[in-house]
Amino acid sequence: MRTWRPADAARYLTAPLEHDDKYSRGVLGIATGSEAYPGAAVLGVDAALHTGVGMVRYVGPEAVGSLVLQRRPEAVLARGRVQAWLVGSGIDAEHRGASTERTLREAFADGVPVVADAGALDLVVEGLHRSTGNPGRLIITPHAGELARMLGAARDAVVADPVAAASEASRRWDCVVLLKGNLTVVAGGDVVVGARSATPWLATAGAGDALGGVLGAMLATRAARWEAEAASGADAAALAGLAASAAVVHGIAANRASRGGPFTVLELCQHLPEVIAELARQATREPEA
């Protein structure tokens, strides 16, 4: 397993072109949050918009959508075409209502890449992405406890050998696995990489919700470019690179927000644009103005 570094992440950014509009820039569908955990939706949408995407379409409970709009009025509460989905954060799989269940299943069936977290992981175990014709276009983002439940293993076993656990899950469900933790492990196809760019202060509620937003935005913008260029693009290596790059971006922003101490996840989100800008300059070797 090699370490994924900022220079690697820089290659996976998708900067807008002069002719791009909000649709060709990339549209991310987000189906996250619940009445019990509305903050997951707010944080994911905020992170996605700070990372850079043409549009975010939020689909979820009306009360949660209202909170999303209060924080980010740019979000659109209307269904429509998207280039990628982020689903599951802040949703309890055991208490999904009929509307949420239908939304998640429709997202998997939409034919675009999906980032699945928390309350959508049981649908991956069910094999929904295979039955809807979307295998190989899925990234899952569990923490150790969630991955242990998926694999039917002990959490301690996943923590002791995260590379083996992530690799096994990737093979079993034909997906890219981003296993969250102090060392983030990404496994997909023949690719296994680690990212350890974040401060320990990042171990806080909501951090994973923001990571999902970062990854969803990066995936939607890249998928829009693949679409414009009529390129298949979304193979395991490309998705694994995007997942590891999102972890690096998220980690650097956390370090900036922390300055050696505690911080809030919204403060992390505020640092995302400068991190993206610096990596974009690194990728193009453009001098800073």
Brief synopsis:
The chain has helices at 6-10, 39-51, 62-71, 98-108, 121-126, 128-131, 144-151, 155-160, 162-173, 207-228, 236-258, 265-284; strands at residues 2-3, 27-31, 55-58, 84-87, 114-116, 138-140, 176-179, 184-188, 191-195. It is of the alpha/beta class. A nine-stranded mixed sheet has the order 1-9-8-7-6-5-4-2-3, sandwiched between helices.
Structure description:
The protein is α/β, with parallel strands linked by helices and 289 residues long. It has one domain (2-282): UDP-N-acetylmuramoyl-L-alanine:D-glutamate ligase (3-Layer(aba) Sandwich). It is built from twelve helices and nine strands. The chain has helices at residues 6-10, 39-51, 62-71, 98-108, 121-126, 128-131, 144-151, 155-160, 162-173, 207-228, 236-258, 265-284, and strands at residues 2-3, 27-31, 55-58, 84-87, 114-116, 138-140, 176-179, 184-188, 191-195. The chain starts with a strand and ends in a 5-residue tail after the last helix. The model has no long low-confidence stretch (mean pLDDT 92).
- Could you tell me the radius of gyration in angstroms? 17 Å
Total number of beta strands: 9
Q: Judging by the overall fold, what is the CATH architecture?
A: 3-Layer(aba) Sandwich
> How does the major sheet shape up?
9 strands, mixed
**Could you please say which CATH topology applies here?**
UDP-N-acetylmuramoyl-L-alanine:D-glutamate ligase
Strands ordered across the widest β-sheet: 1-9-8-7-6-5-4-2-3
Morphology call = globular
Helix tally equals: 12
